[in-house]
Amino acid sequence: MATDDEKGVSYNAEEFLQLFKKGAEFTQDLLKENERLRFRILQVEENLHSTDDEMIVTDENRKLVEKIEALEKEKAEILERIIQVEKENQDFAERYVEVESENNNLANLYIASYQLHSTLDFREVLQIITEIIINLIGAEEFAILLLDEKTNELNAVATEGITCEEIPSMVMGSGTIGSVAKTGDNYFVEDMAGYARDFQNPMVCIPLKIKEHVIGVIVIYKLLIQKKNFAPVDYELFTLLAGHAATAIFSSKLYSESERKLSTIQGFIQLLTK
Amino acid sequence: MPEYKILIIEDSPTMRQLISFALKRLQGVRIVEANDGVDGLRKLSSEKFDLILTDINMPVMDGLKLVSLVRNDANYRTTPIVVITTEGAQEDRDRALSLGANDYITKPIQANRILELARTLLRPA
Question: What's the CATH fold of domain A123-264?
Answer without folding.
Answer: Beta-Lactamase (3.30.450)
